[in-house]
Amino acid sequence: MKQDTILVADDDIFTLTSITSGLSDAGYQVVSAQDGKTAVQLGLLEQPDLALLDIRMPGMTGIEAARELKQRGNISTLFLSAYSDHDVVEVATREGALGYLVKPVNIQQLIPAIETALKRSAELQQLQKKESELLGAISRNREISVAVGIYMQRFAADEQNAFDAIRCFARSKSLKLANLATALVKESASRDDLIEAIFEHSLKTR
User: Fold this and answer.
1) Where's the ANTAR domain (predicted)?
2) What integer pLDDT is reported at residue 24 of this predicted model?
3) Which residues contact residue 166 at a Cβ distance below 8 angstroms, ignoring those fewer than 6 apart?
4) Which residues, 6 or more positions from 42, have their beta carbon under 8 angstroms from its beta carbon?
5) SS3 state of residue 196
6) Mean pLDDT of successive 10-residue segments in the chain (206 residues)?
7) 155-174 burial, b for 16+ CB within 10 Å, e for fewer?
């Protein structure tokens, strides 16, 4: 079973040591940093399942580090702070924090919060994957429609015959329909030859 990796960053060495030790004992893989900049570097290198960041760190704050980790590594964050300030909580929430804990925290409090955050992070990543796949499918379908339109205009074909000709040619060449459509849509010196080849193939297979 895969061990979840947690990135922990806190400028307080006592807190950092206590949390990393407790998480390691609980079975997590842990990478640690004492400042935001190092946390970002480690996060992008190690690709942890979750980042646990103190909000107030010197140099790059936890908020800034979380933003970098999310934008550049799609890494979700659970925040730690010695303050339960409403404005800080609001900023953390706006940056997509999966949770917010006020220090001091003990490991018995921390583990349930981490497990909840890990589950939520996995759900969000699955949603993002599905959204990306959907957008990709829409884009591919759009290119196929454009390719069919190009063929229709070139040979005065109806939509079904144009689609069948392109699909049949793709199968004969062991090409993905979407890849062939991309080649037809893209302006290139060889596009006319490709369209003619599809047309000639359609005549042979009628």
Assistant:
1) 124-185
2) 93
3) 144, 147, 148, 151, 177, 180, 181, 184, 198
4) 7, 31, 33
5) helix
6) 84 92 92 94 94 90 90 89 70 74 85 87 79 71 87 89 90 88 82 88 82
7) eebeeeebbbbbbbbbeeee
Nearest to 42 by CA among 20, 68, 14: 68
Look at residue 142 in the predicted model and tell me its pLDDT: 86
User: Which residue shows structure tokens 């804990």?
Assistant: 101
The torsion region of residue 65 among left (phi > 0), alpha (psi -120 to 50) and beta comes to alpha
SS3 29: strand
Packing angle of the helix pair 13-25, 107-155 (nearest 10 deg): 80
Whether residue 201 contacts residue 172, with contact meaning beta carbons closer than 8 Å, is answered with yes
CB atoms within 10 A of CB 199: 16
CB 76, CB 50: distance < 8 Å: yes
Cis peptide upstream of residue 112 (ω within 30 degrees of 0)? no
